[in-house]
From TrEMBL:
Transmembrane segments: none annotated. Belongs to the TsaE family. InterPro entries: P-loop_NTPase, T6A_TsaE. Its main location: cytoplasm. PANTHER family: TRNA THREONYLCARBAMOYLADENOSINE BIOSYNTHESIS PROTEIN TSAE. This is tRNA threonylcarbamoyladenosine biosynthesis protein TsaE. It is found in: Cytoplasm. The gene is yjeE. One of its GO terms (molecular function) is metal ion binding.
Amino acid sequence: MRQYVLILYNESQTLLLGANLAKVCVLGCIFYLHGNIGSGKTTLCRGFLKALGYTKYVKSPTYTLVEFYSLSNKHIYHIDLYRLHSKDELINMGIYDCFDNKSILLIEWPKLEVDCLPNPDISISIDYYKHETYRQVVIVTCSNIGQIIVNTALHAGYFEYEVKK
Ligand SMILES: Nc1ncnc2c1ncn2[C@@H]1O[C@H](COP(=O)(O)OP(=O)(O)OP(=O)(O)O)[C@@H](O)[C@H]1O
Ligand SMILES: [Mg+2]
């Protein structure tokens, strides 16, 4: 498990981080995306999906809860759990259909308190501060494959980052 801390100065950098992660991501990889409303979670997913060839507008799944994509021979579920509050609600939305070990999951607002989500490979937290426009990002790798993906993605993007073990 390793922590990477970096600053994303504008939307393009958030899109680029998403794109770089997508280019080296493998099937079955699970991302948790933490951060307040408007921090940039969906923006990162937009960069991710576009890098895999999606050309239309990437909708936020805030209301639909799940958006499914089949791109470059990969199945991707983009999930937003903001509006859900219990394990029953998660079951009713059919979340278990998404956990098939071979799809990539991008989960905004992972609700850890309901305790029925699979563990992530990569957990990303995006923060922003009053009167500032940049985003501070903390990426925690929670598996070996997660670490390889993040290392490669950050190197490829010329991001400046700090590693904390
Ligand atoms: N690094 C950045 N610097 C400045 N602005 C950014 C950066 N990354 C994204 N943004 C902007 O911040 C906003 C983020 O909106 P987005 O929908 O991605 O947030 P979100 O975290 O998914 O919110 P929600 O919790 O409501 O789903 C967008 O307007 C985007 O252009
Ligand atoms: Mg969002």
